[in-house]
UniProtKB/TrEMBL annotation:
<feature type="domain" description="DJ-1/PfpI">
    <location>
        <begin position="7"/>
        <end position="180"/>
    </location>
</feature>
<keyword id="KW-0315">Glutamine amidotransferase</keyword>
<dbReference type="Pfam" id="PF01965">
    <property type="entry name" value="DJ-1_PfpI"/>
</dbReference>
<keyword id="KW-0808">Transferase</keyword>
<dbReference type="InterPro" id="IPR002818">
    <property type="entry name" value="DJ-1/PfpI"/>
</dbReference>
<dbReference type="InterPro" id="IPR006286">
    <property type="entry name" value="C56_PfpI-like"/>
</dbReference>
<dbReference type="InterPro" id="IPR029062">
    <property type="entry name" value="Class_I_gatase-like"/>
</dbReference>
<dbReference type="GO" id="GO:0016740">
    <property type="term" value="F:transferase activity"/>
</dbReference>
<comment type="similarity">
    <text>Belongs to the peptidase C56 family.</text>
</comment>
<protein>
    <submittedName>
        <fullName>Type 1 glutamine amidotransferase</fullName>
    </submittedName>
</protein>
Length: 184
């Protein structure tokens, strides 16, 4: 396993509706590799998770608000899914700007399930091959992406990687790809 000692990986969520395993599984993988995961949201306080978009999950403390993030300190940015989470994120201009800034800085970005909605809003999918929850396929194609039905897809975007997966069943491959990309 790659070593992430001294590296920070940000997890960008809205304040509610994040799919719990899509937050906690890659979070644990970052910790297991020696990295420091931080929970980032537009508002301070806590983030409420869900399971299967319906069942209540846990509450997680926000480590930093979007405006407190120093892009240069990040090794990667992860956007977990959850339909409400992803739909809310794409309406938050500061969250969308953070995604653009991270990619422009050459830092890998990973999105799972409905998370690619934020990538569409950031305008970073044109000409890129990626995957997502199947219901986003048309949205991604309309934004200029090539959508494929694969467990994990890593595409080069500028000088960095964009990593995408379809759903919680893909979390082992997604988490491994996140750790590998964050390790550099």
């Amino acid at each position: 396993m790659p070593d992430l000692s001294g590296k920070t990986v940000a997890f960008l969520t809205s304040e509610h509706g994040v799919e719990e395993p899509e937050l906690t599984t890659p979070w644990q993988a970052v910790q297991d590799a020696g990295g420091t995961p931080v929970l980032v949201s537009a508002k301070p306080g806590t983030v409420s998770a869900v399971n299967n978009d319906l069942d209540p999950g846990g509450d997680y403390p926000v480590d930093r608000t979007v405006d407190q993030v120093q892009v240069g300190e990040l090794a990667a940015l992860v956007i977990p899914g959850g339909t409400v989470n992803a739909d809310t994120l794409r309406t938050q201009s500061a969250s969308v700007a953070l995604v653009k800034d991270v990619l422009a800085a050459g830092i890998p970005v990973a999105a799972i399930c409905h998370g690619p909605w934020t990538l569409i809003e950031a305008g970073v999918v044109d000409g890129v091959t990626l995957t997502s929850y199947p219901s986003l396929a048309t949205d991604l194609r309309n934004a200029g992406a090539t959508w494929v039905d694969q467990e994990v897809v890593t595409s080069e975007v500028g000088t960095t990687s964009l990593i995408t997966s379809r759903n919680p069943g893909d979390l082992p491959a997604f988490s491994a790809a996140v750790v590998e990309a964050a390790a550099g």
